[in-house]
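Retro notes, item 3 of 5
We never archived the inputs for the tryptophanyl-5'AMP complex last cycle. Fixing that now. Sequence and ligand:
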Amino acid sequence: MSLKNHTVLSGVQPSGDLHIGNYLGAIKNFINMQDDFNCYFCVVDLHAITVKQDPESLRRNTLEVVATYLASGIDPKLSVIFNQSSVSMHAELSWILNCVTRMGWLNRMTQFKDKAGKDRENVSSGLFIYPNLMAADILLYKATHVPVGNDQKQHLELTRDIAQRFNRDYNCENFFPSPEPIIDNDISRIMSLKNGLQKMSKSDPSEYSRISLTDDNDTIIKKIKKAKTADVPMPDNLNDVLVLSEINNLLNIYSGFSSMKKEQLIDQYKGENFSNFKSELSDLLVSKIEPIAIEVKKLMNDKSFLFDVLSDGKKRATEIATKTLNDVYDIVGLLRYDS
Ligand code: TYM
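Structure as it came back at the time:
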């Protein structure tokens, strides 16, 4: 079945080195979907500035996300790759959605609570309305499918609520579709290598908590060697694995990068301590990450190619975004005229 009339949109923040959580939770699915769907993959630089960014690093990180998309296998001919701030309709639609979203809905967002923590009075107001900008990203392209990690599920549910509320308030049934999250269960929440109860994150102060897609081979091996395991050997069944969060996480990573199911891996390593398992996991990660890291480095030395990809993406994204925003302005009653 051709799904070329279905649209995928997803985004990644240029707020630091991408890690294997970003890859397994999101980017891997981008690649799987690009043959069958109309795909838009955005570098969400406006989201990144909801917390302070150094301008020079932001510029570099934006290009590095583009390089990582390409190095991971996203084909710029099939998929539209662009940075969010270059298509001004994202910011414009997000303002309109700010006026649709209820405060109570935003107050329930757990990611805001986690990120703001005790410093709630001091964080930017952008961080609070961040999910409205994410809804704008998705609805501008009338995306039907959104591949994301588990941490974005609540934002996707909010996007659906916003779409439905807009359609109802403005009497335009089915104008915005309700996008479906595409979330792969086991690999949608990759955990820290140091604490199996904490999400792997770009902002974790410990480098040993994550494996970056630009880590060199020795670093990958060292990080896996140091990864927390358990005081017992590998169990012989999935139920016993599930209570050992660090082991479960390493198995999810192994399975996510190979074609092997967790049950097969458990069968292979049951009863053993973790040294053999870790060494084979490192080999696997090196074989998958090294080609990406090499390609990212190469692409970062060819900035003019990266800018060509971005400007082509910007052109293609702007075409659709302009049409949707014009329709929204008409629906809402905002005047449009030629000067
Ligand atoms: P960001 O930049 O934090 O993460 C990018 C993608 O990686 C996923 N992810 C993970 N998946 C599994 N395990 C992890 N430990 C892990 N950490 C991150 C995220 O779920 C995400 O899919 N708000 C989004 C970016 C965004 C977006 C959008 C996504 C902006 N607009 C529109 C989809 C559609 C974010 O901060 O992702």
